[in-house]
Design goal:
Elements lengths: L3 E9 L5 E10 L4 E5 L6 H8 L7 E6 L2 E2 L5 H7 E4 L11 H6 L8 H6 L4 H13 L15 H14 L4 E5 L7 H18 L2 E5 L3 H7 L2 E6 L2 E6 L6 H9 L3 H13 L1
Parallel strand pairs: 3-8, 3-9, 6-7, 7-8
Antiparallel strand pairs: 1-2, 1-4, 4-5, 9-10
The structure holds adenosine-5'-triphosphate and magnesium ion.
């Protein structure tokens, strides 16, 4: 269980684009937060700065009082698991081996090169696969599973890491509605049962309303809404998505210039 404290976070990419603009946010331990916002709002940039995949230009991110920086990167990656839109499984490897890679954050790198894991890691991985309901698929090749099942393997891999927090960047964007619900139910239940802090970005407002404890609305690198689903009214929704991001506006200008 981890709190996430984000203080005056800004990110300017090398090309000069300001993706995050002095953003502050405190996330409670064990809560399920959903980030909404139009494409280009900065959702992925924000999520990636939480586990150090992206380096902030200024400001700080702390996970359980551990500041995200180069010195702490190994500890941060050990405590913060990621779930990806494209699952990021090694397709030719078994479901079990994919889940075992979740243990690598805690193991020596030589073991990781050889895919050698101690017995106790197999027990942890099996437990994670049971939790996501895939104990029958343990030795199947990862790419033989459906999209929904592959994402459940992605969640099992995150669980095998025994993380304090799970960051999920559009975890259901590649899934049909039924699998999306299964995956979001799983993430929410894991969050509640295991007190794991979950922060997920979504494009489906209805799912955010159904599953989130808290909704953060982002636009052009800023937080423009912060509250419980009940406060995220249809007019809030319209205003969140009506305001185009700067980039979209720039694209539109370019298109007009070439018209
Ligand atoms: N490596 C990069 N270099 C330059 N600009 C970038 C880079 N990565 C992202 N951006 C820009 O930063 C802005 C925010 O991107 P980000 O991926 O965080 O948005 P997002 O809200 O996740 O969008 P989406 O909903 O499409 O995933 C966008 O304008 C994007 O083009
Ligand atoms: Mg994104």
């Amino acid at each position: 269980m981890a709190s996430i404290k984000i203080n005056s976070l800004a990110k300017t990419y090398d090309n000069g684009f300001q993706a995050l603009q002095c953003l502050s946010l405190d996330i409670d331990p064990g809560s399920f937060t959903v980030i909404l916002g139009p494409s280009g709002a900065g959702k992925s940039t924000l999520l990636r700065t939480i586990n150090g995949l992206e380096t902030a230009t200024s400001g700080t991110v702390c996970v359980s009082n551990l500041q995200v920086n180069k010195q702490n990167l190994k500890s941060i990656r050990e405590h913060v698991a990621m779930v990806f839109q494209q699952f990021n499984l090694v397709s030719r490897l078994s479901v079990m081996t994919n889940v075992l890679t979740g243990r690598l954050a805690k193991r020596h790198s030589l073991l990781s090169l050889l895919y050698l894991f101690p017995k106790e890691d197999y027990a942890i991985a099996l437990k994670a696969l049971e939790r996501v309901g895939l104990e029958e698929k343990v030795w199947h090749r990862a790419d033989k599973l459906s999209g929904g099942q592959q994402q459940r393997v992605g969640i099992a891999r995150a669980l095998a890491q025994e993380p304090l927090a799970i960051i999920a960047d559009e975890p259901v964007a590649s899934l049909d509605p039924r699998s999306s619900k299964e995956v979001l139910t799983l993430l929410r239940d894991i969050c509640r049962e295991m007190n794991i802090t979950v922060v997920a970005s979504l494009h489906q407002v209805d799912f955010a309303r159904e599953y989130a404890d808290r909704i953060i609305g982002m636009n052009a690198g800023r937080i423009v809404f912060d509250g419980p689903p009940s406060a995220f009214t249809s007019s809030q929704e319209i205003s969140l998505y009506q305001h185009e991001t700067m980039e979209v506006k720039e694209d539109a200008k370019m298109a007009l210039a070439y018209a």
